[in-house]
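PROTOCOL LOG
Step 1. Enter all chains and additional molecules of the complex.
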Amino acid sequence: MVLLQISEPGQSPEPHQHRRAVGIDLGTTNSLVATVRSGTPELLTDSAGNQLLPSVVRYQANGAVAVGTQAYDALVDDPLNTLVSVKRFIGRGAEDIKRLGTQLPYELVSGSAGMPNFRTCAGDISPVAASAEILKVLVERSESALGGPLDGAVITVPAYFDESQRQATKDAATLAGLKVLRLLNEPTAAAVAYGLDQQGEGLIAVYDLGGGTFDISVLRLSRGVFEVLSTGGDSALGGDDFDRALAGWIGEQADLGDNLDPFQQRQLLKLARNAKEALSVTEQTPVSVADWQGSVSRSLLNELIDPLIAKTLQACKRALRDAGIQATEIDNVVMVGGSTRTHRVKERVREVFGREPLLNVDPDQVVAVGAALQADVLVGNRPGDETLLLDVIPLSLGIETMGGLMEKMIYRNTTIPVAKAQDFTTFKDGQTAMAIHVLQGERELVSDCRSLARFELRDIPPMVAGSAKIRVKFQVDADGLLSVSARELVSGVESHVDVKPSYGLNDDEVTRMLRESYTHAKDDMQLRALREQQVEADRLFEDLSAALAQDGKALLDDREYHCLEVALEDLGRVRNSGRHRDIARHVEIVSKTSEEFAARRMNASIKKALAGHSIDEIDRGE
Amino acid sequence: MDITNNYFEVFGLPVEYDINLRQLSERYHDLQRQFHPDRHVAKTARERRLSEQYTTFVNQAYGELKSPLQRAEYLLGMMGADHGDESLSTLDPDFLMEQMSLREALAEVREADDSEASLQEVANHATSHYAALQREFSEQYSRADVHSAADTVARMQFFYKLLKEIEQLEHELDDY
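Step 2. Run joint prediction.
Step 3. Record the structure below.
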């Protein structure tokens, strides 16, 4: 439907300004960036015309950092300083890393808050910092292609990423100087990319097997709304594991022993990967390592990877059950991720869902394309677009209660944003503090769940056990990020944390790293701050002017109206002053002054929305 | 949130137990289209915060109305009764016996020759009971019988938990 924009005389709408937005698929093996131009999604390439940026970062002693193909080429020669599959480490603790397996060709050292760092010749590097390097390259690529600074980006993450991993990804974006419009789940992004050409309705399963992560999501698409019904997966399972399984077999055949040095390990993995890729098209491929020569058949590969694929299929069954539907009810199965090229994967997925999976969008590109489409919507380039994504949290959130048990507050697969409050009480007479331990996971025992944060509510007035009433409130925002507050209701004592998961960076660290990265570019920082404030001021100015013109007379009395008008004029003047602190202060003032007006407008539109329904009912004769 | 008197009003639905779930979801989508934070990303921080609050509220309302148990609990609350109030539910010994035997049946599933089939049997039983209780509640609610309704909700709570346990066991059996 095409809507004509009708404006009152003298109130012609501002000519629509196209904003620069991109979608970034920050992958385990490769990363991509896409944008929407003239309504069509398009992948952005480097100067040599490559779309894929290998997610490889190499640190050199002279401080130089290489990212992408150049780093990838040094993989075998310089394994200790060349970081691959960084995504497997982001937001994870030393304990998780051990579980990822022993075949790691890096030296890992413990960084802050138990977070592992890579030891390189350029110092200890956190997975967040390494990811930021990859993002920086993609930002540069985008800005040169779009001819100016970015207004924002959508970055995709595996649906099964937990709080820590999401937060760490966002930290990496902050370090790269990128404004994140939204963290978007990869399968949801893929569904958007498919939904676009299909204009479909119905149930979609997205099977997403990347280099290091596996996701399954079940979505319902109706009238432009993508509603995620359930999601599941394994954030430490992917095509890399196929390589490792095959490398292990080759190592055994060639009698290489267990004590390979990092150089040999890398070489063997590269060999295995090449063989795996060859077997996607042929039945048999020759392999030679050291003085061993042999060949690998597809059926051998199948045998090696079947247990891994079986794990993904279990997750599929679980996701279907969570969504309350049968495999046969799925209308479309979308395949995402380079590892779905593996012949056996396609075969097994076809068996489980009883239908041919969709492969018509390149499985490597589909996530970036979906992210770009969503970025275009979010940044405001597609007014009138009806697409909406309703996403869920992948893992339950809760707190520790007596006896080391996890009490769930928000269940997995709950649509976000969401808030939940629950009351707890003291269990000792005169207790004046309560420790709150925030957890994520499905298991009953605290020790089986991931610890996200701990904080204390202090200064509770001493009372008899059981008479204090402590309300703990969980709030998960649209990015899936959690904040928790606790409040004693009798005395009003309150405490609050934005859950910076134990393995993420704390604010000080992010600030420090940001400062370090800006030491050479202080002016840049000033300019960026000014620009950010101007953008915010412009937005506020534009929005409030439009709102005043539309609803000001109806919802405000004369005095209120005049007040806002004056505040707005001031803001317009200060905006061009070039002093970012002044602008920030005025933005704050105008925001505060117009808060009540905004609330009234929201309420009015809810009433309108409700009234709209009753008209529908009359129309349909209900 | 002072915009409506109750969750039903949010979606423009009549206050009753047997609601049209399709209508509920359509109206939920309509509201989301308007208020979801994605619709307000390019707006000011204040509007983004408001949109997040409203969406959170709408999600909460939708979640409670969609679930047969939570919808019943919510209606019970509207009738002035608290579903946690045990004095209202005078559970009869027969139901206690039934609870025990169902729990036993579930415990025996692991040892059964055909675990999957016996689990399915318990699941079918629980599902049909749960559905019957929903019909009972609807009828009790419509004649404003608070006591019976509270009793039915307590039974529904039992079956809801049982169904969750069955689901958990299904996962466990899958994993081996």
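Step 4. Note key features.
The mean pLDDT of chain B is 86.
The CA atoms of residues 149 and 162 of chain B lie 20 Å apart.
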